[in-house]
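thread from #wetlab-drylab

HS: before we spend reagent money on co-crystallization trials with NAP, can we at least see a predicted complex? here's what I'd submit
DV: go for it
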Amino acid sequence: MRQPDVMRMLILGGTAFLGRALARRAVAQGIEVTALARGSAPVPDGVRFIRADRDRDDALVPVAHEQWDAIVDLTRQPGHARRAATGLHARHRILISSANVYARFDQPERSEDAALLAPLDADELPDMSHYGEAKVACEQAVSLAARRDGSTATIIRAGLIGGYGDWSGRSGYYPWRFAHPTGRDVLVPPDLDFPVALIDVDDLVAWVLQCAERRVDGVFNATGETTTLGHLLDICKGVAASPARPRPVEAHHLAAAGIGAWMGTPSLPLWIDDPDWRWFATLDTRAARAAGLHTRPLAETLRSALAYEQQREVARATGLTDDEERALRARLTGDTTLT
Ligand SMILES: NC(=O)c1ccc[n+]([C@@H]2O[C@H](COP(=O)([O-])OP(=O)(O)OC[C@H]3O[C@@H](n4cnc5c(N)ncnc54)[C@H](OP(=O)(O)O)[C@@H]3O)[C@@H](O)[C@H]2O)c1
């Protein structure tokens, strides 16, 4: 029989990086968790799983008759968010949104009242270049539902999420590369002063659960402390106990070698060669911290990201392969040996 005082949480997602970590911790905290997704990977033990494709209009029927204490939506599709907002009943709603909702990134640490992109009208995200607009539309759907039915809602604009399970490799590439050098140096972006911030997936998950328990109402940025790429690389070198030194490569050499920035293959992550995007990773997080967000030291996140990289089973979507790093070094100096 159901315990009346046990929180019942519906996670719309739960099979990928953040949602899976959330489901696992929620179960460990004694929350009764249901996850709804297509099932591209298994949910953690103890989670009731409902297989459904939210592209279909009837996807939410199996969970629509229930009264949820909290619903956490991880979607990026406005249509998914709209249908969940109108078709599901909850005392509290949480949307995992993104720093990409902001209109500009040329100033440090945007606060929550900074200008947003226009919401995407369409139900479906045409491609990732409209990701920010789509998340604005998802935010609006959740806020509207909360106003309409008198529930509460936490909109969480997450910055870059890192740590154990970061399949993208953005947080894991440099720790891994320092742990597996192809030479005396590790090739890194030219701008070591580039502003960097990221949030450990486990810190974000812990705070999402606090928001659910305390029904925290409002819009919040969530990321770690702002630092520089140079400082992050020093930490990576330490975490990997690596003798290799970071070696900045000028942007024109990277461009000539077809090496991109931020994410993708081949790339050097965690920087963007565009002044309009310079402060992209950084957010003003005072409101979230006042509402209980705690972020751990960066070294711990990078250590977790390295642990994940050491046993990753899917290809990294970021960085340089050994051969690509050797080829770039050869272009620069002719030094292709590990000495
Ligand atoms: N990674 C970052 O650095 C970062 C930064 C800021 C914000 N965010 C946000 O943080 C969240 C990350 O979530 P995540 O890592 O758990 O997962 P995700 O890769 O963003 O996927 C979201 C979840 O939605 C499910 N899903 C996708 N299409 C679906 C469909 N048609 N029907 C039913 N379910 C569907 C997926 O499961 P199935 O494939 O099994 O269906 C998955 O569990 C997202 O909201 C993202 O926008 C991420």
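DV: Residues 335-339 have pLDDT under 50 and may be disordered.
HS: ok that's useful, forwarding to the group
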